[in-house]
Sequence to fold (170 residues):
Amino acid sequence: MKIEYDFGGSGENLAEFSLYFIRHRKAFSRNFTLEKALLHLLETLSVSELLLLRDEQRAIVGYASFRRQQLDGQPDPQGEVAFVDSVVLEEDHRSSRVFVRSFRELVRYMLENYRGVQFFQFHALADQPYLNRLYGKFAEITGQAEGIHGPENIYTVDIAKLHSYLTSFK
Fold:
C-alpha cells in the first residue's frame, strides 16, 4: 500500500480536504455535529497547513492539520512550537509502518520549513488509553486542556529529539 504525501495548500486541496473532514468527523467523536465540524474548519484553515495522505488513485485517505504557535497556544507564524491540530487516517490504511513514515514526513517538513521551531506539540483525548500509551513513548504530558470533545492531554517534545527518534525506525 503506497501513500503519497501532499503538502499543497491549493484551493482544490482545501475544498477536497473540507469534504473529507466533514465525512470523517465522527473519527474524533460520535457527537461531532456538522455545525461543529464547519466551525472547526473555519477556525483552523485560516491558520493551519495541511498534509494530505493519498492512495495510489490520489484519493485522500488521511490528513494532518498543523501550524506554528507560541508556547501559550497562540497562533504565530514565527512561534517556537509546531502544533498538530488534528490527524485522521482511515482504518484500512493504519499500520505501524504508515504511522511512522507519515509522522517522520511531517516532522521533516516542519524542520525544513519552520526555521527556529523548537518543540512539537499536540493534544490527545484523555479517555483514549491506547493513544496516550503510544504518545507517551516519545512525548511528555505537559498540561491538560478542555477540548470540544472532552478533557485532553497536551503532549510536548523537543522536535530534534522527535526527529531522531522517528529516523531510528527503518
The longest strand covers residues 60-69. The chain has one domain: 4-167.
